[in-house]
Amino acid sequence: GENVEQHPSTLSVQEGDSAVIKCTYSDSASNYFPWYKQELGKRPQLIIDIRSNVGEKKDQRIAVTLNKTAKHFSLHITETQPEDSAVYFCAASSEGTALIFGKGTTLSVSS
Amino acid sequence: DGGITQSPKYLFRKEGQNVTLSCEQNLNHDAMYWYRQDPGQGLRLIYYSQIVNDFQKGDIAEGYSVSREKKESFPLTVTSAQKNPTAFYLCASSQAGPGNQPQHFGDGTRLSIL
Question: Taking CB atoms and an 8 Å limit, are A96 and B99 in contact across chains?
Fold first, then answer.
């Protein structure tokens, strides 16, 4: 079955810096890769997703890149703000399989 | 998302007791999921259901049971066979599934042992 590894487990940046979180997956059939943000005590919320027919997707300060050959995908947050502080989860799935999540990255943005 | 309601928010279980966590959605989604969240472990899939009266085991189904009698409801029972039930439980749904679909989560239920 699918296995998703996420790094780093914790990330501290200064406000205004960029943050990058990386995930690798094992199942070459995986073709859907969402990213979720979970603030303390709250529900995970989808912030961006990418499908295997696209190499990069951007939404304002957030971007995701996908390298299918290497089986890894990354979340990029530019111009970080204190409200970006949260736990971020990557996930992967293929047709007919449930999402498999990484273990999460705790991002701390200090002002 | 206001479309998925989990209750109760906090739940306490005594030794040998079964407890049921409620999950209701009004998004008209076909697929529903239960995840367990432990510190540093991410979200691990317990059970999922693609359609009414059908459900599949996830990675950590032992000690849990589910039912899907109505499209909008997917309750999870934590049985006495689950020896370490203390965790945060999240219910989710997607329009279709599983796979290749954004999932929407409820606010979660925190279960503790008395």
Answer: yes
- What residues contact B10, with CB distance under 8 A and at least 6 apart? B109, B110, B112
d(CA A39, CA A9): 15
**Closest C-alpha to A55, from A78, A72, A42, A38:** A72
Report the pLDDT value the prediction gives residue B6, as an integer from 0 to 100: 97
Q: Is A8 a residue whose pLDDT tops 90? A: yes
- Top pLDDT among B81 and A64 is at A64
pLDDT for res B97: 79
A31, closest residue in chain B (CA to CA): B100
Amino acid code (one letter) for A43: R
Percent of chain A with pLDDT over 90: 88
d(CA A30, CA A94): 4
- Find which of B100, B109, B110 to mutate to test the A interface (most A CBs within 10 Å of its CB): B100
Hey, which residues 41-80 in chain B have their CB within 8 Å of chain A?
A: 41-45, 48, 58-59
Q: In whole angstroms, give the CA distance from residue B106 to residue B112.
A: 18
Strand partners, B111: B11, B87
CB pair distance less than 8 Å for A101 and B58: no
Is the Cβ pair B102, A34 closer than 8 Å?
yes
- Across the interface, whether the CB atoms of B42 and A103 are under 8 A apart is answered yes
What tokens appear for B46 in the block? 């317990």
Q: What is the pLDDT of residue B2?
A: 56
Cβ atoms of residues B113 and B86 within 8 Å: yes
